[in-house]
Amino acid sequence: TMAVPPNAGATVAAANTRLYAIGRYYWNLRTRDGIAKSIEYFSRVVADDPRDARGYAGLASANAIVADYGYGASSPMVYLARARKYADRALSLDPKSSEAYAVLGLISSQGMKGAMPQIDRGLADLRRAIALDPTSGSAHEWYGTALLEQGHVGEAYAELNTAAQLEPLSVATTAWLGTAAYLERRYGEAISYARETIDLSPQRPDAYETLGLAYEALGDTPSASATFRRLGRACASCRSEAAALLAPLYARSNQMAQARAELTIAQAHHGEVSPDDLAVAFDAIGKHETAMSWLRRWRRDSHYGGYAATEIANDPRFAGLRGQIRQRPEKPA
User: Fold this and answer.
1) How does pLDDT run across 42-95, given as a tens digit for each residue?
2) Could you tell me the residue range of the domain that residue 69 belongs to?
3) Closest Cα to residue 142, out of 163, 128, 116, 111?
4) Does residue 150 form part of some domain?
């Protein structure tokens, strides 16, 4: 048989390092096509060297995002199971795989797509991921979003800021940093981060929402309105969400006919609208009971986890509703 060149292993390792890096580039885009391309590259790492833990960890990260963003043809739970399987395989090959622990921490802490959250376990896995690799941007990002879910907005902002410095091209990190800045009432920073996110990914709806809300908080109604209209054009289902955000702007400008017209659009497609935005819109036109009904629905929805409480406590749009919540706490089921 032909002898294997002594440097063949090093050659494969070097090639896999490049393949993994390309996979991470596509993964950071967070688009459907980008995640699909990342899976191709991570799979090539595994095919070239089945004992390279990076390939499995990359596949774990990619499948977790497929589940979280709803990119798959199957149920999100299918992709979460795959993510766990790949993460476990990565740890069996490399017990110090920071990326694998980060994925497990993300799944446990967020209660993603129907999975029951295990907050303490998730936070522990994320802290371990950071301890193993302090330069892991995704570990810092997911730890930051987990802290945000728990209401620790200042700590979350710091973690997400670290993540953005480590991976400045990560669309999701920059988007979440904008959200945290908004909830920290750093509205100028929120505008900057949202703009950066849109530059990286012009079709990302949450960045337009953060940008518009920050303008709104600063009293710049024309810029907020223009941004929400851009949101309405960002995706096929974004018009209804934009309508819910536009309605309060019209109401506060005493343009009640336009406010009601936008709210009618939002109501007609309420499955595509975040319940908190509907609550704010109804409150703005004076339908306070309906607003509270949508707010209660939002708080009970397990998909939003602890983030609902964080937003109610920190988003300036809820200043009036917060008093009503305190006066009329929910009755136990």
Assistant:
1) 999 999 999 999 999 999 999 999 999 999 999 999 999 999 999 999 999 999
2) 15-93
3) 163
4) no
Return the CATH number at 19. Answer: 1.25.40
Mean pLDDT of the chain: 91
For the entire predicted model, the pTM comes to: 0.89
Residue 167 · residue 180 · CB < 8 Å? no
- The verdict on residue 254 lying in a domain is yes
Written as six digits, the tokens of 205 are 């709806």
pLDDT at 333 over 60: no
Q: Round to whole Å and give the CA distance between 41 and 99.
A: 16
**CA 51 centroid distance within chain:** 31
Residue 43 in domain: yes
Residue 209 domain-assigned (yes or no):
no
Closest Cα partner for 244 from 230, 214, 264, 224? 264
Calculate the alpha carbon distances from 134 to 3, 20, 59, 73, 138 in Å: 41, 19, 21, 35, 10
Q: Each residue of 153-208: pLDDT tens digit?
A: 999 999 999 999 999 999 999 999 999 999 999 999 999 999 999 999 998 999 99
CA distance 286 to 119: 37
Residues near 197 by beta carbon (within 8 Å), at least 6 away in sequence? 171, 174, 175, 178, 204, 207, 210
Cα-to-chain-centroid distance, residue 131: 23
Q: Which residues, 6 or more positions from 2, have their beta carbon under 8 angstroms from its beta carbon?
A: none
Domain's final residue, options 93, 108, 133: 93
Instruction: Say how many domains are in the chain.
Output: 2
Encoding tokens for residue 83? Answer: 């993510």
Q: Which of 93, 128, 163 is the last residue of a domain?
A: 93
- Burial of 81 per CB tally in 10 Å (0-12, 13-18, 19+): middle
pLDDT for residue 296: 86
Angle at 144 between CA 224 and CA 141, to 5 degrees: 90
